[in-house]
Design goal:
two-stranded antiparallel ribbon, alpha/beta, 6 helices, binds S-adenosylmethionine, seven-stranded mixed sheet
């Protein structure tokens, strides 16, 4: 799988059809529940789907559970589940989303897309028992300091967090270092020259 600004390549016809189907479902449901900002609906594929798909290439070998926090319209979690159905069939994908209407969308979309690797938790991240995940992700959810607290709750020992972050990531890293120890790799985003994916392991409170 390759995710570049031009789109997603090296995937099967079924995966590509599922990604198109997800885009169609989002366009259908968006007027009712505002899953993505209306301004980005026209560039759903490049702005949200490709941006989410690039995280999949950082899946560690042997990972069994990926937990996406604050999934909203399914970014990155539903896109990861679609790619995993082809590329990592043993991976279970959790989507945690406290907004009940968005959680209904996520369940309906997973069903319509024929994804049996998805579990939706219509609850707050803070109240779901630890998922002991190998990977935790969160996009556009909270400052890094807060995300590390969520990741600390839901990661298994040795697990990693993948957090897409924008131009202010250095500031967020400095703030987080006041309360947390961690190892971080800054991976340039393929969709935005100012953005990075923070790949974080070894999370511990200071
Ligand atoms: C700005 S949206 C981002 C959605 C998606 N990750 C994306 O990139 O498009 C943040 C989402 O997180 C959910 N959320 C915020 N706080 C949460 C919490 N404590 N537990 C579960 N979901 C939460 C909100 O309902 C919202 O859908």
């Amino acid at each position: 799988m390759t995710a570049s600004p031009g789109g997603i390549s090296d995937v099967s016809r079924e995966t590509s059809d599922r990604l198109d189907h997800l885009a169609a479902l989002l366009r259908k449901w968006n007027p009712a529940i505002n899953l993505v900002s209306r301004a980005t609906l026209d560039v759903l594929e490049s702005r949200h789907i490709v941006d989410s798909a690039q995280l999949f290439s950082h899946l560690p070998n042997g990972a069994r559970r990926w937990t996406d926090l604050g999934s909203g319209g399914g970014f990155p979690g539903l896109v990861i589940a679609i790619l995993a159905a082809e590329g990592a069939p043993d991976l279970a994908v959790d989507l945690i989303e406290s907004d009940q209407r968005k959680a209904v969308f996520l369940r309906t979309a997973a069903q319509e897309l024929g994804l049996d690797n998805v579990t939706v938790f219509a609850s707050r991240i803070e109240t779901v028992p630890s998922r002991q995940a190998d990977v935790v992700s969160a996009r556009a959810l909270a400052p890094l300091n807060q995300l590390l607290d969520f990741a600390d709750r839901h990661l298994a020992h040795g697990g990693i967090a993948l957090f897409p972050k924008g131009a202010r990531h250095e500031e967020e890293l400095d703030d987080a270092l006041a309360s947390w120890q961690f190892d971080v790799q800054k991976i340039p985003s393929t969709t935005d020259s100012q953005a990075v994916i923070l790949k974080i392991g070894g999370i511990a409170r200071v």
